[in-house]
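Lab notebook, bench 4. The sequencing result for the construct came back, and we need a structural model before the next group meeting so we can plan mutations. Quick request posted to the team channel:

Model the 3D structure of this chain.
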Amino acid sequence: MRKKKAQVTRRGAIKKKAQVTRRGATKKRIVVKGRSLPKNLKLPNINWKVITLLFLLVFPFLIVAMVRHWIEKPENLMIKSVEIRGNLKYLDRLELQPIIAPFVKTNLYLLDKENLENEIEFNHWVYSASLVSMWPDTLIVKIHEQQPIAFWGNEGMINEFGEVIDVDLPQLRNKLPILYSPFDKGREMVENYVKIRQWMKNFPVDIVKFTEDKRSSWLLTLANGIKVKVGRQEHKRRLRRFIVGYSKGLVGQVKKIDTVDLRYTNGFAVKWI
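Done. Here's the predicted structure in token form:
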């Protein structure tokens, strides 16, 4: 009986001890900031290098967004100076000021450059206009002025690119030649005029007028008043024939000649005054 009692006591002691140990391990806690957390809880491992990199990537975009928000207000960095540049012989800069003024009541960022360029180019003396922004508050307007090289009948003038422009320079009526065609081919007429000048480079009299009719027949008017009908074909050969005939027989009778007609297979006809 004693042996059995002792056995029970040992078993109970052992069981009780093991139970206390397990419960004690389970109930043991650590306190973090007022909260009870398990001892074996793992806190996250923060990668500060990645966070720093992300900050460096995002920060510039934040700055750009702030600057853009600020610059989108017209009253910030308003345009204070407008410079008009270009070799201007005929265009008065003052004519452009009323055109430019409404557009520059803002800053360079918000400036409507395309429409301003178009408005400036509506001026007959402006071939092209380009705008250059000089930050923070200066606008440069570059003007390529029209360069008239001849009159286009009585309807305007021809620029250096063979385009008909709606301008007039009466003071140059006796200095620039007159070109005209009933067709829209100003460039071709300029090119033909240059050819004629080359063919007649040794001719002593200037060509003051070069026109063609609806049949594309050429007519020249010389500075001495003589009209030369060249026709529609063989222009170069006919003009060479005229140069020879003029130097040999017509040069002494200029005041009596009204028209020379070169539209013949051989020779030419003269209409006297």
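The mean pLDDT is 86.
Will bring this to the meeting.
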